[in-house]
Amino acid sequence: MLSMSEISRDDVAHLAKLARLKLSEDELEHFATQIDGIVDHVAAIREVDTEGVEPLSHPTQNVDGTESVMREDVVIPSLTAEQALDQAPAAEDQRFMVPQILGE
């Protein structure tokens, strides 16, 4: 399949500059190829005949407007806080203790 509008290395370099990204020559070529492939796939999807297909307002909506059937949300017994923390290396106030990673 021919690309509708080929994405060049220069196009990617321009986008990288706008996004303040420093990319190597290899990365520019690699991303240009990847983006061009994505554009080709989108173009192929646009070619699909959607005549008579009603748009959906939500991914779980059926064509007739009803919602898709999903399993019922049922509450089932689970671990208590004590059971969940039983094997934790450190716990305090019914919470896992983890090393601080932000300088607060």
From TrEMBL:
Oligomer status and interactors: Heterotrimer of A, B and C subunits.
Record region (Disordered): 50-69
Keyword Metal-binding among record annotations: no
A GO term, aspect molecular function: ATP binding
GO biological process: glutaminyl-tRNAGln biosynthesis via transamidation; regulation of translational fidelity; translation
Pfam families assigned: GatC
InterPro entries: Asp/Glu-ADT_sf_sub_c, GatC
PANTHER family: GLUTAMYL-TRNA(GLN) AMIDOTRANSFERASE SUBUNIT C, MITOCHONDRIAL
Protein name, UniProt field: Aspartyl/glutamyl-tRNA(Asn/Gln) amidotransferase subunit C
